[in-house]
Amino acid sequence: MKFIVIVNPFSGKKQGLEIFNKIKQKFDSKNIDLTLIRTEFPGHAERIIKECNFENYNGILMIGGDGTFHEIVNGMFNRRDKKKIPIGIIPGGTGNSFMLDLGIIDPNDAVDRILLNKTRFVDIIKLDMGQTVKYSINLVGWGMITDIGLTAENLRWMGNARYTISAIIHIFFKNDRKAKFEVNGKRSVNNYMFVIGCNSINVGKGMRMAPKAKLDDGLMDIIVVDSNISRLRLLAVLPKLFKGTHIDEPEVQYYQSKKFSLIPDNDDSLIIDGEMIGKTPIVAEIIPGSVEIFA
User: Fold this and answer.
1) Annotated catalytic sites, by residue?
2) In Å, what is the CA distance from 275 to each residue of 78, 124, 247?
3) How much is the pLDDT for 157?
4) Around Cβ 159, how many Cβ atoms within 10 Å?
5) pLDDT value at position 93?
6) pLDDT at position 94, please?
7) Whether 6 contacts 68, CB under 8 Å
């Protein structure tokens, strides 16, 4: 067997190459050839997979986080030959939200799963933003979610606490936005705090944003919070994200759907799989069982 290995040396605690050197012996013991490629800039993994000759490989292995996985999936979907091969995810990023859903947080455990050579198919979210189409493995968020993400990027030196600190800052400002939102045939025009569509349960670092989500159920889980929630209530609901009990609060709407659309009054940024790489308006649609992973 032969795998191409994409390592993001800048992801998470920048231990990607160290992880690779530790796990390589497990593949060597099974006479599996590994072709190592280090990513050098944002979007590099996507370009590698888009241009790679898949005839030479049995699968793709990656060491990184949700962002690296996002790039690999987008590279695969944008190939001219539309060919796909299985992906093995070895956690090495900050959040690794997708792997949390699979119950794999240790690189050695991930390698053991890959070596079993058993795969499963998972859903992907197609994001049509007019002139741009992207594919999400984890989440797409709008509103206060994007504000929190932007601020958190500037607070990376604070570690995982940056998400909580950023949330508290934006609860204080409480900026809402007006938009047309459509899901399950129901259209509404309202002021919202945020809308987030999830493919996985976990987002960020251990926040169970969509506790009913499954990676292979053919549905997105969509969480909506209207602007009529007070700052005190937002502060009260925030800690419940880590247990997933926020969905029981009266101000939180929870939908499961194959598709939703969002058209704000003004074009806004979107957070996609932890990165600020999208713009509204958007039509999000699930593509069931469209990516094969070792799991």
Assistant:
1) 66
2) 19, 16, 24
3) 79
4) 11
5) 66
6) 65
7) yes
Q: Which residues contact 85 (CB under 8 A, 6 or more apart)?
A: 54, 57, 58, 59, 60, 292
Give the angle 282-243-170 at the CA atoms, nearest 5°. Answer: 55
- Residue carrying structure tokens 């091969």: 85
Domains of the chain in start order, with CATH, are 2-117 (3.40.50.10330), 133-289 (2.60.200.40)
Residue 237 CA to residue 248 CA, distance in Å, equals: 10
pLDDT band per the 50, 70, 90 thresholds, residue 12: low
Classify residue 285 as exposed, middle or buried by CB count within 10 Å of its CB (0-12, 13-18, 19+): middle
Buried b (16+ CB within 10 A) or exposed e, 120-140: eebbbbbbebeeeebbbbbbb
pLDDT band at 89 (very low <50, low <70, confident <90, very high): very high
pLDDT digits (tens, 9 = 90+) for 101-141: 998 889 999 999 999 999 999 999 999 999 899 999 999 99
If we measure between CA atoms, which residue out of 86, 185, 78 comes closest to residue 134?
78
User: Higher confidence at residue 160 or residue 187?
Assistant: 187
Please classify residue 44 by burial: count the beta carbons closer than 10 Å to its beta carbon, then call 0-12 exposed, 13-18 middle and 19+ buried. middle
161 contact partners, CB below 8 Å, separation of at least 6: none
Q: For residue 280, what are the contacts with CB-CB under 8 A and spacing of at least 6?
A: 129, 142, 179, 262, 263, 264, 267, 268, 269, 270
**Would the pLDDT of 55 be above 90?**
yes
